[in-house]
Amino acid sequence: MAGAVSGATSGGVAFNPEKRAILPHSAFSSFASRFKQPKVDEGFQDVIPVQFQFHGDVEQRKLWSRYWI
């Protein structure tokens, strides 16, 4: 796991200023498999979908995409 941590920080401090350890892929896939989009009738005032667009260079995208579900 130590090699994975150094790989996460090689992209720069901006992406991991706290130098946190990388979560295993299973943590992300487990979350994604259980995720249900929230609904207003659950008590939320609004549910606003956001069309996220990444802004960065190729190396930053490569690092970022490791954590995207």
Short descriptors:
disordered N terminus; 0% strand; 38% helix
Provide a descriptive summary of the structure in words.
- With 69 residues, the chain is mainly alpha-helical.
- It is 38% helix and 0% strand.
- The protein has three helices and no strands.
- The longest helix has 10 residues.
- The radius of gyration is 16 Å and the shape is extended.
- The N terminus is likely disordered.
List the helices and strands and how they pair.
Elements: H1 2-9, H2 25-34, H3 58-65
Summarize it.
The chain has 69 residues and is an all-alpha fold.
Order of helices and strands: HHH
Helix content: 25-40%
Mean pLDDT: 77
Our estimate of the beta-strand percent is: under 5%
Total number of helical segments? Answer: 3
Sum up the overall morphology in one term: extended
List unreliable stretches of 5+ residues.
1-10
**Distance between termini?**
20 Å
| Biggest sheet descriptor | none
Structural class: mainly alpha
Radius of gyration: 16 Å
* Record field, number of beta strands: 0
